[in-house]
């Protein structure tokens, strides 16, 4: 079976949707965070496959950027989550409703 | 014209002084008062220098700069009119005003707000000089209002007294009524003649007397409304007696010598506007005011109020003279009145000071021994006011009576003579009660003469009140209002001129004086209480209560005004605010309340809505 661009994109889309569902439905902040990473990597997969099938390196360059930014974001995000946990003794989104009026 | 800069300096020095006092020296009483006195005395000196160089009748009588140019026909100049009329008024305002400034230095000595007082006084001087020097209607109106403001500030000077605040408001609001007519008249004149400059207007009216057409009388009477307000003529006369709540120098300067005379001055300045019909109305309003005020004055007991009603009455004389087409007698009486009325007020102020701020004449008595200088100056002022030959009041009053007689208006002539008698009566009622008889209170027996800074202006003013009729003041006004026939020259000729010109007026005037004096002597020389109410009954009560004008206005105009105000308030509260603003406000409030339910505070809801939004955007962007 020949594996073409569509297959890669389908996998990427499935990953993205899984990540999105995780962000919307899961309650634990850490899990939400991991789902977010999943969405980023779905985008990475799509970019790499576009790059491979169009014989251009632009997509791969972009992926490097995304990985770098994601690493930085993880550092900040995890720090925030830890700080939040220390303050509230909880990492569940139901407990974080202080934005409500 | 030589020294063209001087009039500008005279005008703006008092403003500068007011600004300096307000901004820098409000803490320092002495410096402030000296700055203010310096400004007005310098103004007087410069006026004298200017008149010396140019005479009372300069060849070029205007100096101006273009001020506001709206394109098209509306151009407003900032110009100074320098003819005999305004130069003489300059002398009066700076001269009498200067004397009163110096007097205030002594009178207000113990007042903690003396600096503020002098700042206001300088502001008033500036505004009054502006009226006098204005060469067009707009400028005059602006200074007219400025004078109103400074009068308001000075009447309400002791603002911690509720009566002073009320009097200030009453004066201001009553003047607004007159000024409304004045402004309408100015607009009408401008609309019909296309100019605001007095010289241009006068020229236009002389080349074509019918230039104002059918509106001539109305326009003239509207302009006269301004004078009715400012010179306190019937029916807007009610504010002037209440204005006596201000300090006595203010009463002398503003409400006797200068500001209230501004109306008469304005009438003379714009005399070319008035048709014979308008002049008729003016004459009768003046005569009626004079009679009314003189009657009220007979039964007042407050020393300042008596003089205030006397001022009203004399202003009525002046307005009557203008109405009888006699601007020269009007201005002549204005000048002598400025001297002797300022003198009377300042003497009254000296009495009030000596009596430790007691103003009821029935608390005084026998003050002639305790306050000899004030006694003499008051006597001179009273005699001049009553019109005893050869003091100044006799000549000016006689020229007004002569004018009425000469115009064959015998009704106004008889009223004038009758008022002359009344004037003598109420003046000497005051005089005898205050200075003769026995002391009627403890304060009267402990009264003392005032200091030199107070008595010196009194003496200067007394001299001018005595000789004011003989120094050729009347002749100066003839530059502006030429008359046919020759004028008598020389001192002795001037002394007997009235008896030659109109013997009936002169002799009847003196007769009225004698009757008034004898009646006052008979009734009041030894009286301890007022014998008149018992003799006159209801009439005396009516006089005492000012013929119930305040009550009448309270019941009609003020009640009607309150009613209209209540209706407008209701409309504002329920229709404008309730329906107009209320609906907009309520709608915003309601939609806000509904939208806030979207704000759940749950992160994941936001994330879901966010995704939904992005999908929608993508859908709209990507669909073919």
Detailed description of the structure:
The complex is a heterodimer of chains A (101) and B (624). Helix content of chain A is 77%, strand content 0%. Chain A has 101 residues and is an all-alpha fold. Chain A has a single domain, classed as Helix Hairpins (Orthogonal Bundle). In chain A, 11% of the residues are buried. By secondary structure, chain B is mainly α. Chain B is built from 27 helices and 2 strands. Chain B has a two-stranded antiparallel ribbon with strand order 1-2. In chain B, strand 1 and strand 2 (75-81) form a beta hairpin. In chain B, helix 2 runs parallel beside helix 4, helix 6 (162-193) runs antiparallel to helix 8 (216-230) and helix 17 crosses helix 23 (503-524). Chain B is globular and about 115 Å long. At the A-B interface, helix 1 of A face helix 27 of B.
Largest sheet of chain B: 2 strands, antiparallel
Helix content of chain A: over 70%
Anisotropy-based shape of chain B: globular
Unreliable residue runs of chain A: none
Q: How many individual domains of chain A?
A: 1
Multimeric organization: heterodimer
| CATH topology assignment of chain A | Helix Hairpins
Number of helices of chain A: 3
Question: What is the N-to-C succession of helices and strands of chain B?
Answer: HHEEHHHHHHHHHHHHHHHHHHHHHHHHH
Number of helical regions of chain B: 27
Strand content of chain B: under 5%
**Largest Cβ-defined interface:** A-B, 13 and 10 residues
Task: Pick out its properties.
heterodimer, A: 101 residues, mainly alpha, Helix Hairpins, 3 helices, B: 624 residues, two-stranded antiparallel ribbon, 73% helix, 2% strand
